[in-house]
Fold this protein.
Amino acid sequence: MNKTMIGSLLCFCSLLASCIQKEQNMSGNALIEKYAIRTDGKTLTTRNLQQAIDDCAGKGGGVVSLPPGQYLTGTLVLKKNVTLHLEKGATLLGSRNIADYPASGRRKALLFAEKASNISITGQGEINGNGDAFNKGNDAPDRPTLILLLDCNQVNVKEVKLTNSGFWTFRFVRCDGVDIRKIYIEGHANWNNDGLDIESRNVTISDCVIDTDDDAICFKSEDPAYVVENITVKNCNLSSNCNYIKFGTASAGGFRNIRISDCILHKCSKSLFRFWEKKLPGVTNPITGIAGIALEVVDGGFMEDITVSNLTMTDVQTPVFVRLGKRKTSDRSYLKNILIKNITATSVSHIASSITGVPGLPVENVEIRHVDFQLKGGGKAADTQVNVPEAETAYPENRMFGTMLPAYGFYIRHAANIRLTDMKLSTVGEKEERHAIVAEDVDGLTIARSTLQLPAGDLCRISLDSCRNVNVASSPDSEPLIFPGNVMGTRIY
């Protein structure tokens, strides 16, 4: 054998050894015994677990697989090329001592990674944060997130159960390439128990079940220089005592090219903090969500190219809430090119859906089509005279304008190029005397092929004030939406 062949063979053997070395599978009793990991759920075993993860990463990566048992731990840092696998019956149990989460501020987390690539969390086990052990109250300090990933690439999370976080459940910030499938989230242990907080790019979320007190899925944009984009959410079952699907409230950067489809939205399994039936006039249901779809830009950022389709929502106060505001100002702030289609909803409050900008900053190019909303009746004609505040700098929420808007279906103000087609708006329960749609300061409004329930009493279906370029067509049954004399407001051009 010549030297060239021997050299090639040695290189091949070296490469093979290197590849084998990178496939470290550490699991079962051997893993537990080697690292003296405790499985009783009572003895802190953070250092032991972390050593297993570190050793796996140091050998090129692989799988650290935890067998059934309870593993009491503080912060664990995930590493490059390592999969943390929780077998069925395995539970990572968060320490109830905040000292076991050494990071400062909102970097505290049970599972943490920063600038790591190719990391995974898999298996049919559970990650339980013991969140009721920490400070209570909205935005209360010094609480750990369950999972926090910063600036990571190629993240895979599959099948695990995430429960009882002390703060947000699963937050990933400036990550690129995130795939989340078939996970279950339950968050009712503390305030601010969001399900997924997304501030990343190139993300796929599918077939997940989320049951949380705070927002089920929340897109955030805290970095003015970062755009949250190229995201798909599909086939998920979402429930929340706040917003089912929310963009904002942090909206300093931007949101672009996001698709949400084929999801079921409904009330939570429980409500331990909200009690909306005691806070909001007209709400009698003990468990209800705030908004089904909330699209909010109020911190100087932007939003564009968002599609939400094929959703069924029940137990919601307001089906659609779109808000462009000026809590923080910026010359580049805008909200435009939104498509919402194929939505059915049943509401439990008098707070209508709304699309609102502020003077000089209109929401632009929003199309809503093929929707069927059954809305709670009970509004009176006098409610159409309510003074709707601008609330330019207020925190965005469906009730920011009050709990009774002048329309039962849609309230639209400071907007341009709004198209409402193939809609059915009707009310249930008490008779409804408000308009179906109220539009103020809208340039370009189309309402076509829609069936709008006629208000009881003398008011018209549609009220317009300071609107331009309005096109209102007949409903499918040829019944005019606007009869001569029953359009209120200024001239229609």
Summary: The two ends are 91 Å apart (CA to CA). The longest strand covers residues 302-324. The helical segments are 3-21, 28-35, 46-58, 276-279.
